[in-house]
Amino acid sequence: MNTMTWPELMPWAVLLVTFVLVVGAVVLLASWWRRQFGAESRAQRQRLAAFVRNNAVGGGDDLLLKTTGGNPNSAWLAPLQQLPGYERLADLLMRTQSTQSPLGFLGLVLVLWLGGLLLTLVLFKLSLQASVLVAFGLAALPWLFHLRKDQRQRRKFEELFPEALDYLSRALRAGQGLSSGLSMVGQEFADPIGREFKKTVDEINFGLPFADALANMGHRVKSPDLDFFVVAIVIQRETGGNLAELLGGLAQTVRERIKLAGKIRIISAEGRFSGVVLGALPFILGGTLTLLNPKYMDSLWGTPEGLRIVSIGLFMMLLGGLWLWKIVQVKV
Question: Do 144 and 178 contact (CB within 8 A), yes or no?
Fold first, then answer.
């Protein structure tokens, strides 16, 4: 039985990749159109506009609409929502304030993977194995972007959080109520502190129980400092006590923890930088040599022995990266 060679399979591969890209683009466009101009979206905006007019609450239309979760009652989304990791992806997009739905994000990742595979095969004439590695690298870029953005926002929230606690404590000592104090924090502080407290106040105004609104804020931010705040508020509302003094002590504790975490980051900076350099250097060198002199690297990418060496090297690099990451991770 004769097998087709790669040059004979190339037209069919190009046709298949083109078809998948077109279908993915159509699905993304349809998802965006339905999210922006669908009947349910229009109805939500109309109800929210009526609420704003009746209660004179400004600036809430873009705070309460959840734009990343898709339609939870949609039948064609139900199987996807049961996949492992779907809810974690939806939470990540929500925390980074992304306008993409999880389905749209996965479609973007698929388009980047297929586009990278097609470009490296057709334009740069790389081998199939090297093209697959490049495609996976491109597909990982959206994940890395959102993970990095989520980390930066959480760190900024934690840096501003002690000041917000002190402000709320002073507001309570001045005679303000807790809900009023939360609203003042949302108005006076910059994002992400202001944004999250505004969302919490809006949820309370819409009728959500106070404890549930605070729990939602903790779920959005994913910060242990905020979890302490939520637990303290819930317990104090049930048992009573001096909430202003409690918040002042909590602010001091959080401030000391941040100071200690900063010292640990400074001490471990050399180890983290060494891990980044050692992890990135083989990929940079291998990619540069492959682009400049592909024939020189054919023995590495195009032979079973070379692929075996690459596989063993990647596995050992993964173990080394995890080891270095574990060493420099110190919980405070």
Answer: no
